[in-house]
Amino acid sequence: MDETPISRGFRSKRQGQTPKGRLPPGQYVTADFPILSAGPTPQTKLESWTLALELGGSLAGKWSWAEFEALPQTTINTDIHCVTKWSKLGTSWQGVTFDDLLRAAGLAEPPEPYVMAHCDGGYTTNVPVEDLVDGKGMIATRYAGLPIPPAHGGPARLLVPHLYFWKSAKWVRRLRFMEQDERGFWESLGYHNYGDPWKEQRYDGD
Amino acid sequence: MPIAPRPRLEWQPVRVRDIMVETLRVKSLLLHAPGWQGHLPGQHVDIRLTAEDGYQAQRSYSIASPPEDDLLALTVEKVDSGEVSPYLVEDLRVGDVFELRGPIGGYFVWTVATPGPLWLIAGGSGIAPLMAMLRHRARRKVRNPALLLYSSRSLEDVIYREELDGMARVDADLRVVHTLTRKQPKGWTGHRRRIDRELLAEASFSPEQSPRIFVCGPTSLVEAASGLLVELGHDPLTIKTERFGPSGWMP
């Protein structure tokens, strides 16, 4: 069968409701904020929370919650796209940009081209550094002005909104610089290594 | 080492061979997928519907059939406000063709090679991927202890009820525990409340037995159950979850 099969009687209920150019292929808009996590939600206390930047097996920077909160705060207004097909438009996140984190660690420029994010609960995801710099990525601690609830990734999650949302790792605790790219959790389980929603890079080989 | 991409999961046409009415809102679609490469119990597929005007919609559905079966089974619950599930449940007919690709996901999976007791916790249509595991276990006649704790609104909402009863009847190592949260039939002696700490402590394996735990259902059920399991001493890494539906958080 060469032709795309047509589902007679099937029609869009949503077409025309989405501003043009805002929705990547295969996505639909949701007003809710679905939760997709591979395991239980970790409950990390702020007193014991730290964020570490690691380079070549040693610490390049480490912040307690209070220290992290004292870093320059930035707001990013953006659409987000989950690989499970939902997109949420016009979300607003506050936190510390990757650029400001590098500055706080005294790094004039990124020392390696890749980063692995390590999270409470064992989750990992890999992101090229060029997708984090120039305001493209942040460690977010607030959503719509409110602390991010644990189920949604709080106290702090990575935010890389131009990639599928599994890259915006919940419960992030360590960013490890890598000279060579390595696959993270979902990237090792058949999901795309990069995950550009506009190219519909959902799974390996897309 | 540079990362080499693997082959693409291609869309393939599948034909509806049979449709099973599971409950008032739920049907199982039995699909003929020529050249299907096989799957592991717990994995899902993406489906794609194309309208006559070319509009396309994609959704993910868990596979409910075991790898041993020839036909691929998807169990679909109708979400009234949805775009795809009402079509699949109300309009799709035997003989219809649509596109599918997969299998997808390699974490929420269980096979007979997985050691230890199997503990499944389901809410509503979250039973689907867990049913693939139970069917696989039944086909392979393995006898590791298994327990299903299944929360439904009413007896009429229990999906696969007769098949589950039948499995438990012939398999002394499988226990199926129902809880009916909204409506119970006359004379119902089983549980009648949402899954809580006591229910998890009672219908359970202990952390010392190192069960493999799979929780699938609406977000609130999975959040509550998986959190309680951690409090009860289960290693978070042994608890695998799949959540669906709204979270209710919309600031």
Name the biggest interface: A-B, 53 and 56 residues
Overall number of structural domains of chain A = 1
**CATH level-1 class of the largest domain in chain B:** Alpha Beta
The general outline of chain A is globular
Number of separate structural domains of chain B: 2
For this structure, what is the CATH homologous superfamily of the largest domain in chain B?
Answer: Nucleotide-binding domain of ferredoxin-NADP reductase (FNR) module
Specify the biggest β-sheet of chain A: 6 strands, mixed
Please tell me how large the radius of gyration of chain B is.
18 Å
Q: What structural class do you assign from the helix and strand content of chain A? A: mainly beta
Average of per-residue pLDDT values of chain B: 96
The portion of residues forming beta strands of chain A comes to 25-35%
Number of strands of chain B: 11
Distance between the termini of chain B: 43 Å
CATH fold topology of the largest domain in chain B: Rossmann fold
What's the CATH topology label of chain A?
Sulfite Oxidase, Chain A, domain 2
- What is the structural class of chain B? alpha/beta
> What is the CATH architecture descriptor of chain A?
Alpha-Beta Complex
Oligomeric category: heterodimer
Percentage of residues assigned to helices of chain B: 10-25%
Bulk shape of chain B: globular
Task: Give helix and strand order of chain B, one letter per element, not per position.
Answer: EEEEEHEEHEHEHEHE
Provide structural commentary:
Helices cover 6% and strands 31% of the residues of chain A. The radius of gyration of chain A is 18 Å and the shape is globular. Chain A starts with 27 loop residues before the first strand and ends in a 28-residue tail after the last strand. Chain A is built from two helices and eleven strands; from the N terminus they run βββαββαββββββ. In chain A, 36% of the residues are buried. In chain A, the strands form two sheets. In chain A, strands 1, 4, 5, 8, 9 and 10 form a six-stranded mixed β-sheet that branches. Chain A has helices at 65-69, 98-104, and strands at residues 28-29, 50-55, 58-64, 74-81, 86-97, 114-119, 124-128, 138-143, 146-147, 157-159, 172-178. Chain A has a single domain, classed as Sulfite Oxidase, Chain A, domain 2 (Alpha-Beta Complex). In chain A, strand 6 and strand 7 form a beta hairpin. The mean pLDDT of chain A is 95. Chain B is an alpha/beta fold. Helix content of chain B is 20%, strand content 31%. In chain B, the strands form two sheets. A six-stranded antiparallel β-sheet of chain B has the order 4-3-6-1-2-5. At the A-B interface, loops of A face strand 3, strand 4, strand 6, helix 5 and strand 11 of B.
